[in-house]
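Quick check before the chapter quiz. The format below is the same one you will see on the exam, so make sure you can read both the input and the output lines.
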Amino acid sequence: MSVLCIGVGNELRGDDVVGRLVVRLLRYQPLPDTTFVEATGEGVALMEAWADAETVYLIDAVSAGQPSGTIYRFLAHVQSLPSQFFSYSTHAFSVAEAVEMARVLGQLPPQLTIYGIEGEDFTAGAPITPTVEKAAHEVIRQISAEIQTLHNH
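Here is the expected output.
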């Protein structure tokens, strides 16, 4: 079974880089049949990236008013996403909207798991904050374990 991991974010906006960071670090894990993609979060590009994938993990920064570093996990193939979570997209067609559009068009991957990490500082030029970086490592651990489980069944 092949797996696609998509890290979404903007490297120039503080904690918004976290999705890309997770994917960059996942590349160092021993994960068989796994492809890694970094994306800006533009909806159409996301839909194209996951078009032929069976199992997809998408990681992005969120802003839901919870403490920095809070981790959210959504099974997007069976539940809708809270659109306000992914409001830091610089595109008009965001992650949540891409998921819902793909759902309507019947183009959602059979398994789409979305991890959101609550950001704190999305200021241009800011570094990633320590709590978000710590959460990124926890998400890496969780995704690695999930992919290993997939391949062991």
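If your answer matched, good. The first strand starts at residue 3 and ends at 8.
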